[in-house]
């Protein structure tokens, strides 16, 4: 079997195990970022609503934390399924009356090492960008009033930076449009990812000037970053007591199933910035990009 065939086999295996890439059962040696974020938030005394596409996986993770004395409850969620998002929304309203913090962690990537296939580009874009966007829109009406403001944290990646020296969109005009938060629009972001998907279908994406590393994943995270900035601007008009602060952060190259356990950052360290952003008591910022508790450039 050649290198190309082995890479294709690996991507197919990752597709079949997609649910495990979203939430990993909580254990001492196999913790996903999402579960670790839930664990750290619950350790601060919060009630945490943990979600997973796979009910068995999510229930197991929640049970382990419950047995450790943490207040964690589970509900099934598939962020690319509108009916599933609606079911979660209805359940939150009925059982909890609303929420104070939303952390969007669900995401997929089918490339590894030197691979740069776009075989599953539609799934990647649909999950990492459109799914995240759908969750934000569905949860905003449920965010409870607070003098400190509700919080939304999107888990993204440095691979999605607009002006990264080695991995960026070649079209300077498009980069400038995406960078200008005052003229940034949902339509522009959608058109950008849909243009890429159209080129994937007709086979012209390689000459399209897209990011060179993990192209579909990088673009999906670029879109999620841009959407974070857009929504932070829109949400800034909310009155005091009803503020919602929205930021994104890069957890780094983490030792999880997403990286086939090849990362160099532990899930505990990767979760830290998300929890920090969620719990900042004052001097809250919005529409910014962070890594290791430091603001970085988009």
From TrEMBL:
Pfam families the UniProt entry points to: adh_short
EC class: oxidoreductase
Listed InterPro entries: CBR1-like, NAD(P)-bd_dom_sf, SDR_fam
Source taxon at top rank: Eukaryota
Molecular-function annotations in GO: oxidoreductase activity, acting on the CH-OH group of donors, NAD or NADP as acceptor
Entry's EC annotation: 1.1.1.-
Key words of the record: NADP, Oxidoreductase
CDD domains, alphabetized: carb_red_PTCR-like_SDR_c
Gene3D superfamilies to which the protein is assigned, alphabetical: NAD(P)-binding Rossmann-like Domain (3.40.50.720)
PANTHER family hit by this protein: (+)-NEOMENTHOL DEHYDROGENASE, SHORT-CHAIN DEHYDROGENASE_REDUCTASE
Annotated family: Belongs to the short-chain dehydrogenases/reductases (SDR) family.
Name of the protein described by the UniProt record: Short-chain dehydrogenase/reductase
